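Lab meeting, item 3. Inverse folding demo.
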């Protein structure tokens, strides 16, 4: 089915998202991962965290994830052991934060602030062979990078819930038309579905003249 993630090129960029079946990134009143994280999925997440990605994120995700990482390091954090390990481990990996509102130096270890245009900065990182990169949440950043044609892989983990009433952060709003070639898939714990694609941004429906 083509290259797997492990065979990816050194400057590959992946958009990596979790999503409900109806296209939301989260839901009001629901726990993280919609309460459906389970051993196989969490073990896979831990293995993924050991890969040499540089994580790309925006200001809102930076604020949220850095606070969660700090909270998870406390003895009475309330996170499970696996969740805490995953969150605290993010402090050790390289991160690039795109923001015009944050100010350097950033307090979360291994975080570099970029105040200019994110699309231009990521394009230069790809040209210079920065190594494999992955988004971390950051829906608007992910959308901008995909629209610009910079994304090599588009990976989703689909959670089997529909949150039509409580869903927040619709993932695909504002996206261009995109053709997706599936290159990997698997099921975690008999219920979570990983889908990985090579995306191609389209100017319009196939067979129509470019606009």
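The presenter then showed the designed sequence:
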């Amino acid at each position: 089915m083509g290259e797997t993630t492990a065979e990816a090129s050194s400057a590959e960029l992946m958009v990596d998202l979790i999503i409900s079946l109806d296209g939301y990134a989260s839901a009001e009143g629901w726990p993280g991962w919609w309460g459906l994280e389970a051993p196989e999925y969490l073990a896979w997440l831990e293995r993924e965290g050991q890969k040499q990605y540089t994580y790309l994120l925006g200001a809102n995700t930076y604020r949220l994830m850095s606070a969660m990482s700090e909270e998870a390091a406390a003895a009475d954090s309330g996170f499970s052991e696996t969740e805490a390990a995953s969150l605290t481990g993010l402090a050790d990996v390289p991160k690039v934060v795109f923001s015009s509102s944050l100010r350097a130096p950033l307090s979360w270890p291994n975080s570099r602030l970029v105040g200019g245009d994110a699309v231009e900065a990521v394009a230069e990182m790809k040209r210079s062979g920065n190594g494999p990169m992955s988004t971390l949440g950051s829906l608007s950043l992910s959308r901008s990078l995909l629209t610009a044609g910079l994304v090599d892989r588009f990976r989703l983990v689909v959670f089997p819930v529909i949150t039509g009433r409580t869903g927040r952060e619709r993932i695909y709003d504002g996206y261009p038309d995109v053709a997706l070639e599936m290159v990997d898939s698997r099921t975690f714990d008999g219920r979570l579905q990983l889908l990985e694609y090579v995306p191609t941004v389209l100017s319009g429906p196939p067979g129509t003249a470019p606009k």
